[in-house]
Each structure stands twice: as structure tokens, then as C-alpha cells.
Sequence to fold (594 residues):
Amino acid sequence: MISEKKILKTFQHLINTSDADDLIEVGSGDDAAVLDTKGKNIVHSLDISKVGTHFPPNFLPEDIAYRSVAVALSDLAAMGAYPSFMTIGLTSNSKDLKWYEDFAKGIENSIKDFKIELVGGDVTFGEISICVNVFGFLYDKPLKRSGAMPGEKIFVTGTLGIGKKGLDDVTNDVDSIYSQKFRRPEPQFLKSEFISKLASSCIDISDGLIKDLSSICSMSNVGANIKFEDIPILKDVADLSYGDDFELCFTISEANSLFLDESDYFCIGEIIEGNEILLFKNNNLITIETDGWDSFK
Amino acid sequence: MISEKKILKTFQHLINTSDADDLIEVGSGDDAAVLDTKGKNIVHSLDISKVGTHFPPNFLPEDIAYRSVAVALSDLAAMGAYPSFMTIGLTSNSKDLKWYEDFAKGIENSIKDFKIELVGGDVTFGEISICVNVFGFLYDKPLKRSGAMPGEKIFVTGTLGIGKKGLDDVTNDVDSIYSQKFRRPEPQFLKSEFISKLASSCIDISDGLIKDLSSICSMSNVGANIKFEDIPILKDVADLSYGDDFELCFTISEANSLFLDESDYFCIGEIIEGNEILLFKNNNLITIETDGWDSFK
Fold:
């Protein structure tokens, strides 16, 4: 019988317990962690990743761990923040200790890649679900969703549709650059830092461009005018309504947009007065379906 | 069909979105929350509560919500900290919007009772599981598990075994003071504040007195000598190995123990050299079984 104690041991070496650490006053192993944030504002986000919903049943434990952390961190990048520390609530029904060791390897790689510290967590038994809490600090100002202004340019940081193709390939056991990116998503911290002084609003594309841009528009009380031909997509218009790309979508004044390198940032349209998102393809207004959660015109 | 958007709406009124708030720089609704902790150290703990493991299948959504928050907060009390804000990751397989409305009522009551702010969260579909992240600030110094010294007195703050009886009553649909306490556990914040200047080590009794006292002993490199007759218990010796009481167990110097009111704090023994917990009943050394996770003599 596998015990909680044995499971926790597979993570023990990853948890920073040093009281001498710059951040950690009291490390994990006690009832709670005590953290010294040096007076800086904390940026926090929480993300649940669940088997069947956020990754397919054949997804490996190391990949589950890494992807869960990366996906949660994308929200920090979208807010103009860099990672500092995290806690993980793991629910798993595996009775195989190797599953937990492999999961721990994925966490370890995420710790290295994102320069983040694991400061605590909890483990319980049940259908696989990872609740990741990430904490970070601002590069500059917070990149809120509510700062878009009419006349500003709308940019995305990369090709959309890669997340969808990655999920298809992982589900079908196809090894490709897309399945690799699905297993190791890259939160856009470098671009977040670069635009944090320049952009007016920002969101990460986790629910699909149209839905996510809708969030910026509704929170900023503006509309948007976007041109299909200018959007970097992998395949077709469906790539606009599927998420999991974890690129950033942001708005920026025309003057500030001159600082952006055209090979890294793609202008897809502009913010307008009103409350509609107008998508043009060959100068014709087109309508695309989202998954029904939000209305879209 | 119930949508994530509809579910989130049932919680919307509970989330503090005011940017003018003292704590909150950027409220929920954005990619992440930005929090101003005024330079104070943050105390953080995470707790997963799961149907079948932490509460029975017939537990009502309002009670699930309230208990999940209270249980998580008990770790802050054990660390000598008071609550400030929280985030909640909710997984539920209910397709009934009323379930979420009732859950939200439980959260609302916990917000009122514990003077805590909800600053964000996530919702996903699956077997019921609540991942609660609580954040607070220290009353005085951190009440670590590692501070116990030989010669100190060991105290508990209340009767043990009430959690076990409460679970039995809830499971059997018996309405009693015990089932009521199971639905509305009380983290010991008042006592935590009072002892925060006085005690040397502290833990909350969530896994059973013997296991939890073992944690203090192993982290402090000491042993303990406890007297069964002095332990306030509801029923029998089994009450020492079952948890969920959420009383505090702490150690304190004899001099400081004179400040404690005998009707609120119960001395059950003392810290000794060594690494064993010795339990005496009628002056005879007895051995009790824990659930096998920790050795115990």
C-alpha cells in the first residue's frame, strides 16, 4: 500500500525548506509557510488542470506536472509579472510510486526552467487534478485587461492554433513539434517584460483569440476591428476560437508600437469605439462561432 | 446545459474587485490578482478537501464550502497568524446551478465569520474537490513546530474526539452539537493570538494528537511524556489517533504557562529529552496504534 508519507517524500527534495533563504522565513514542513516579499506587491493566480478536460488520459505524469505549472504561469506573464514561488495541490489516483516520482521530475524541470520556488502543497487521492498557485512580482506596471483605448493597435505574440494541433497530436500519440509544445508550453515572460512598460492592456490566449480579446474589450468598454489575413494562424479560422496557445494578446498606442520588432509581434487590428469585435476576411465581415460561453459578432 | 460562465456568476458578488481596497491593487477578473501586503510577511497554506476523504457524500454544498475554508484556516491559527485573503479552486460534478449558489452561500458565511477576502479562483468539472489557499499575517512571531524544549509543558486547547463523533453523526444524518461542529469547525484564532507571544511551538490537531505531537517532537528533536487522565477526550483512547478536531497543541515554558486560564487550556504532559512519546494511563506505559503512517511508541 502506498502511503501519503511515501508520496510526500518524492517531493521533499524539491521544496525549499531553508529558513536562511531570501524569500522564505519559515519553510514547508510546518503548518504554513511564512514568506518575506520585501514589501513588493504580490501577483497571484490559481489554475486547476484536470485529466480529460485540460490534458488527455494518456498524458505522462512528468508532462502533467510541467504543463500544469507552465499554464498557471502564463497568467503571471499576461499580468506583466515574473515568477517567484508556487504551491501545488495534487490529487491523483495512482497507486504506483513511480507515477509520483515522474510527476516530481516534471515539477523539478519547471522549477529550473521558470526559476520558481516550490514552498508547499497538499496531496490527496482521487481523479487526477492539479491545483497550481503561482506567485510573482511585477516587471513594471500591471498589464490589466481594462486599459485598452480606441485607436490603439492590437498585437499577438505568436502563431495561433498550435495548442489545438498539439492536443490532437498528443491524443493520437504523434510525436511532433506541436505535441512537444503541448507538453512544454512556454509562458511569454520575455515578451511580457518587454511590453510591460509599453502596452496598455494584455491577456494570454488560453480560451481562444476571440474570447480573450472579448475580455479586453468588455473590460475596457471598447470594440475591436481585426483583419483575418494579418493573424498568424496554423490552419484555419477555427484556430481563433480554440485556446491553449498561451501567446499574449495586447493593445498598445501607435507610438509605442514602433518599438516592437515585426518578427516577434504581429499587429492584427485596432481598438475602436463601441462594444463589438468585427472580424474582416477579404474585406468582408465574417462571423465565427465560439463555444457558446460568450456571444460574438 | 450549465456553463462555466453561469457558475462563475454565482460567486461574482463575493469577490472583492475593488482596486480602491486597502489590500487589492488589481482585483479578480483579470489574469491575476495584484496584492499589497504593506511590507508584512505573508503566511500561506493550501488545503484540499475532497468528497469521500474529508467529508461524506451526503454533505451539503454550503457546508462543504464553509468547512473547506475553516479547515484551511486552522493551519494559519496553528502558525500564529490571522486570515487576510483566500483563493478557491473548485472542482464539482454538479450540473445543478443551485448547488453552486449554495456553495457560494457557505463561502459567503466563511468570509463574514473569518473576516477574510476572496480574491480569485478557478472552477472545473469533476469529482467534488475544494483547493483552498489561505493567506494571512502573523499576530507576533511564527509558532513553528520546531521550537519545543525539554522541560516545557504541553497543552491542548479543547476536547479531542469531537471531530470523529461529528463525522459519524453527519454520515448518519444525526443532528447534534457534534455534527454542527463538523459543519462549522472553528479555527482557534483567539487562542492563537493569546499564545502567540507565549508559546514555543504549536500545531493544529488535524491528524490526531499522537501524530501531530509527533511532528512537534521530531521537528524539535525532543520527546514527550503525556498523561492520559489529563487529556480532555470525548470518549476513549481512539480519540487520540483520530484528527479533525482543529484544536491547537502547543508547548510553553512553565513560567509562561502561568498566564493560561485553566478553563481554556489543558496541560497534558511535558517535553522530555529523547525522541519518544510516552503515554501513561494509571501510571502504566501504554501503546496506541496510529494509522501506520508514523511509528509511535
